[in-house]
Design goal:
This protein is an alpha/beta fold. It has 9 helices and 8 strands. Strands 7-6-5-4-3-2-1-8 form an 8-stranded parallel beta sheet. Helix 2 links the parallel strand 1 and strand 2. Helix 1 packs across helix 2.
């Protein structure tokens, strides 16, 4: 794929998002994340030049290799925010804790403990999303939907963690009810949050094949890989 194809794909995606907002009466901003797994940093930087300001990283080692080459501003600050969206092993948290602005795949108390520990060592409060296994698929990470409120309560108990919302990867060809269920969980989590520091405002659902449906059901962050960069 050449850069012109990425440019055209980005144009199509942004037009689709604006149409979906109009069709479904959405007034809030929809954040478009570029998922960079397997994508060379040169192509990522081209996407940044088009207006992408949010990257999603899946693999720690790949991220650490590419991150130094991402576009910087004149003040040597990143032009983009970077979220870690893949499954995260406890022993890898220390490598990314000061390099990402949010971890989307928080799904165990052990991981929360490690995130809190590493964040504290850098004097940070790390934003997280709670990953929900909305289809209850054995092959995917995330907590079960009925575990959300207990898990939220646990997460709110850490001083160096701030819960910002929910993330899910719906099953392939999921019915719309799955997306509606995630939307309900998101609103319920807002109501259940007890800690003033908690700011539940992100619903990260929807990828290249289903982002229109996700927007229809309240997603305000969509994770786009192949529809932007093409097949890996």
């Amino acid at each position: 794929m050449n850069y012109n194809e990425i440019t055209e794909n980005y144009k199509i995606i942004t037009e689709n998002v604006e149409k979906a907002k109009a069709d479904f009466g959405v007034n809030d901003k929809i954040n478009i994340m570029a998922v960079t797994k397997g994508v060379p940093h040169e192509k990522v930087n081209h996407a940044i030049s088009l207006g992408i300001d949010l990257l999603g990283e899946n693999r720690v080692q790949e991220f650490l290799q590419k991150e130094p080459f991402y576009t910087k501003t004149a003040r040597n600050e990143k032009k983009v925010s970077i979220h870690f969206i893949g499954g995260l092993q406890n022993n890898k948290v220390k490598y990314i804790i000061d390099k990402v602005s949010l971890i989307q795949s928080a799904d165990s108390e052990k991981l929360l403990i490690e995130i809190n520990k590493r964040a504290a060592s850098h004097n940070l409060v790390t934003d997280i999303l709670i990953e929900i296994n909305i289809g209850c698929e054995w092959s995917k990470g995330g907590i079960k939907p009925d575990e959300l409120f207990e898990f939220l309560s646990v997460a709110e108990g850490f001083d160096n963690i701030r819960v910002r919302g929910l993330m899910a990867i719906p099953p392939i060809d999921a019915k719309e009810q799955i997306y509606a269920n995630m939307q309900k969980l998101f609103h319920d989590a807002r109501n259940k949050a007890a800690k003033p520091q908690t700011k539940i405002d992100i619903l990260s659902v929807g990828m290249s094949q289903d982002y229109i449906t996700a927007i229809k059901h309240g997603a305000n962050l969509i994770r786009i890989g192949s529809a932007l960069f093409g097949g890996r």
